[in-house]
Amino acid sequence: MPAPPPDARSFLGEVVSVVPCGDDGVILALKPELDLPPVRASRFFMLKPEERLAPLIPRPFSIYRERDGALEFLIKVMGRGTKALSRCQPGETVRMVGPLGNGWPTLDGDGPPWVMLAGGVGSAPFFLAIEQALAGMDDAAPVPKDRLTYLFGAATRGLLYDVDGFRELGVTVHTATDDGSDGFRGNVVQLVKKLWDAGDVPRECRILACGPDPMLEAVEDLTREHGLEAWLSLETLMGCGVGICNGCPVETRPDGPMGDWPNAKCCVEGPVFKTDAITLHGRETHEPAKGRSGN
Ligand SMILES: Cc1cc2nc3c(=O)[nH]c(=O)nc-3n(C[C@H](O)[C@H](O)[C@H](O)COP(=O)(O)OP(=O)(O)OC[C@H]3O[C@@H](n4cnc5c(N)ncnc54)[C@H](O)[C@@H]3O)c2cc1C
Ligand code: FES
Hints:
Number of strands: 16
Helix content: 10-25%
Structural class: alpha/beta
Order of helices and strands: EEEEEEHEEHEHEEHEHEEEHE
Distance between the termini: 10 Å
CATH class of the largest domain: Alpha Beta
CATH topology of the largest domain: Rossmann fold
Bound molecules: flavin-adenine dinucleotide, FE2/S2 (inorganic) cluster
């Protein structure tokens, strides 16, 4: 059975700041009580205010970036968990479990350029990814800025969280909004097709995507249709984050590298999956593996 990563720990982080971001978000900065080695982009932490009883279950958040010894999280305020975190005051403590999950693949400059597609708060795992790619990940050389393109889509301008911060990273940024209030009118999948047609983004590219499920389904279809390598960072519901509760199943592709088993666990086998391994469309053609009882 897949296990949580060996470097994951449970510890406290002191709230340094909670800064509003966009129409409904905050950037929460937490100073961990212990020294952490650098965290790979698109890994995540389970977070919960330590002193508050509700909600009982922590919530998962991607690491947004690291600044001055603090870990920052971009949080879209939705329900009880995100409201509780957004109301924390400096000096309060937050229970942190992590780093969890696998993170993006190594972003290298050798193969086709990278095109990153973010939808709304799906932008959270990309800031650090761009910083790490520009600095050089693992043993790979730094990726030149012109080989990284960031496409950021949202319903409206106010949900393009921290878009100026992305622009300041120096990579090419294009925006798309459903209402046309910023950039291209439409979604990021329509935008990437338009940029391909205009020759502004090479058709031969590698895709990273994070956003709402309908967007990721469209990315899955697009990249399969065009035979592109693509990785999706999924934001399933999660109960535990460490592989115990079975609350985060992702359907595997029968013809893919995980196909023997109908579901992967997003928390310990993801949240990043290659599109040849999983499907967001439901798995109708799976034949149960002999000798296995399911997940
Ligand atoms: C690996 C991972 C990384 C994530 N990173 C971030 C991040 O960096 N920033 C961020 O803002 N959010 C992120 N999320 C999503 C975040 O965990 C949820 O928005 C959060 O758990 C909602 O908690 P809540 O108590 O506020 O909402 P709840 O009261 O639990 O739910 C409020 C509403 O949101 C819906 N909802 C809850 N969780 C999700 C979800 N995961 N996806 C879609 N709808 C959901 C519920 O069905 C309900 O309609 C991530 C999720 C995962 C799995
Ligand atoms: S969240 Fe509990 S098993 Fe994945």
